[in-house]
Amino acid sequence: MSNSVILVEKNDGVAIITLNRPEAMNALNFELRAGIVRAFAEVKADPSVDVVILTGAGRGFCAGLDLKELSGETGDTRGLAAVTNNDLRGALEEFDRPIIGAINGVAITGGFELALLCDFLVGTPNTRFADTHGRVGIVPGWGLSQRLGRWIGIGRAKELHYTGNFLAAEQAERWGLLNRVVAPEELLPVCLQLARDIQSCDQGVIRTVKQIADEGYETTLREGLRLELIASEEYGRKNVSQAMVAERRRGIQERGRAQAVR
Question: If 157 and its partner were Cys, which of 42, 135, 148, 194 is the partner (CB 3.0–4.6 Å)?
Fold first, then answer.
């Protein structure tokens, strides 16, 4: 799928979804938000896709909600009606495979929230984060007030929430927001290699671990351990059963070949 504001490129089980409004620093107007929802629905429906890389075209990852649209300057009132909907958040939250955030530039407010919906983030020296909800008069609605503190610690998160100050890439890496910082020209190659590393693992295990890690992160350690044990036992039973069926099928085929030789 591709259109003017979203590009989707698939290659050997890896889908790169690119926000493509570089002239507006990939600000989230109605069209782009709807495009993100459609793009994730498309790749979720494609069983050949194992990993998604989410990035932005141009100098910025995402500058947040399109304030011109919100103020009515563009004449498109669809954005006003869709500010608080959960479609975009749900599109990423409910995606059952790893999402790598390739944060190529600024990720501001709604763009910051979009980045935090990824499983982990890789940046460049040009990467910067900021929560400007307090400056523009909008309360977060895509999880920033809840996810950021869990990711980097509540004190650090509150500093960003309350001040609206920018967080540079080097500090973001020290705080654990970015897994690594690489040269701009290496951003996509590094993310693609990480995607290939993920693909080299058992995909059933990867998807199960993603599910229980996300569910466990939202609850207590005791409940998370319970969820893990249940998932481990269920996965073991299922795969032992499948292995037994496969072994029995191989035995039948081998006996059939042996009889044919006689």
Answer: 148
State pLDDT tens for residues 192-228. 999 999 999 999 999 999 999 999 998 999 999 999 9
How far is it, in rounded angstroms, from Cα 5 to Cα 148? 27
How far CA 66 is from CA of 63, 79, 211, in Å, comes to 8, 9, 32
Contacts within 8 Å (CB) and 24+ apart, 196-202: 196/14, 198/50, 198/51, 198/98, 199/13, 199/14, 199/50, 199/51
**Claim to verify: residue 225 and residue 105 sit in the same structural domain:** no
In degrees rounded to 5, what are phi and psi of residue 246?
-65, -40
Question: What pTM does this model have?
Answer: 0.86
Using alpha carbons, list the distances in angstroms from residue 106 to 16, 24, 76.
Answer: 19, 12, 25
The DSSP element (H or E) to which 113 belongs, if any, is helix 110-116
In a domain, 1, yes or no: no
> Domain limits at 240?
203-261
List per-block mean pLDDT (blocks of 10 residues) for the chain, which spans 262 residues. 82 97 94 94 97 97 86 54 65 96 97 97 98 92 94 97 97 98 98 98 96 94 95 87 57 56 54
Residues 92 and 213 occupy one common structural domain: no
In degrees rounded to 5, what are phi and psi of residue 127? -70, 130
